[in-house]
Specification:
By secondary structure, the chain is an alpha+beta fold. The protein has three helices and eight strands. It has one domain: Immunoglobulin-like, CATH 2.60.40. The chain has helices at about 1-20, 45-60, 115-125, and strands spanning about 25-30, 35, 40-45, 60, 75-80, 85-90, 100, 110. Strands 1, 2, 3, 4, 5, 6, 7 and 8 form an eight-stranded antiparallel sheet that branches. It is globular, with a radius of gyration of 15 Å.
Length: about 140
């Protein structure tokens, strides 16, 4: 049982390592005061792309199908070498929680970001001078 678990983690690690090499760019659009900014920042450096790819890979799908009512902190598009785009909306809160929803209907749902990912995203936002997109709270539909 333990060997199977370790094998699965090893395969996941190897695939995640290869996945970042398959990413051409990450396009980031910051939401400020509930409004999507018209300017898109294109991330080409591996270290910057890795912040977002790791956050998505580490996210865990929430058991209940909750829809977030609050406007997102960020919208991101990830472009692969094959020319495919994956689009996501992310919510980062000041208490260290974060959520993600994929904009692809077939892979839908709400995901919770890991604490480490939220911390890394918050640090990234600080380096970009975009701390104001971090929200106090996230509201879910009832």
């Amino acid at each position: 049982m333990i060997k199977a678990f370790l094998f699965i983690r090893l395969v996941h690690f190897l695939l995640a390592a290869n996945q970042i090499d398959n990413v051409v760019e990450v396009d980031v659009n910051y939401w400020e005061n509930g409004v999507k900014n018209q300017q898109v920042e294109v991330l080409l450096h591996k270290q910057d792309k890795n912040v977002f790819v790791d956050s998505i890979n580490d996210a865990r799908k929430m058991n209940d199908e909750k829809i977030i009512r609050t406007k997102p902190s960020l919208t991101i598009n990830i472009l692969s070498n094959e020319g495919d785009y994956e689009a996501y909306e992310l919510w980062i809160t000041s208490d260290g929680t974060g959520y993600m929803q994929t904009l692809d209907p077939s892979g839908g749902g709400t995901f919770e970001l890991s604490k480490a990912s939220v911390k890394e995203l918050a640090e990234f936002l600080k380096t970009k001078g975009k701390e104001d997109v971090v929200q106090d709270d996230v509201e879910f539909e009832e």
